[in-house]
Amino acid sequence: MAPRPTDGHVTDRALAAARGDRAALDEFVRATRDDVRGFLVHLAGADEADDLLQETYLRAVRSLPGFTGDGPARAWLLAIARRAAADAVRDAVRRPRTVAVDDWEAVNAPRGRASDEAVLVGALVDRLEPDRRDAFVLTQLLGLAYADAAQVCGCPVGTIRSRVARAREDLVAALEPGRTIASG
Predict the structure, then answer these.
(1) One Pfam family name from the record (predicted)?
(2) Fold of 110-184
């Protein structure tokens, strides 16, 4: 597995892409795709993540000429992803739809223990209050610095720190017998 590109490298690629370098744009997308998709899975679910990933990069490419490199490009891109997910939620609320499941037995098939634990952790994270979930996913799962997460969320660094701390408390409390997370 290749090492994760540094924020400086990703930002350099974004700036080169903003100047019209197509190879830099391809490298920028490859360097950020996994983080952006992971964030979108937590925001909107796996079923919506790929569509939102495409929408995020379409918005980013249109916005690249205005990217100045004052902050990390990864944080800039995750802020775009967050807005794309929020827009999708607003659209979904306006136009509810149903989805047919052809093979309900496959959906309910038993999974292995590791998979069940991952599903449990994912479900607990998904039930966190949205601001806490965003801060937790950005810093603890995607590894963003608190300052970068603050930029993505549009709030002070101290707010990110308190949201992460409260998210951890909520997760620990939810693992205690008889407790649940009061979702937001």
Answers:
(1) Sigma70_r4_2
(2) Arc Repressor Mutant, subunit A (1.10.10)
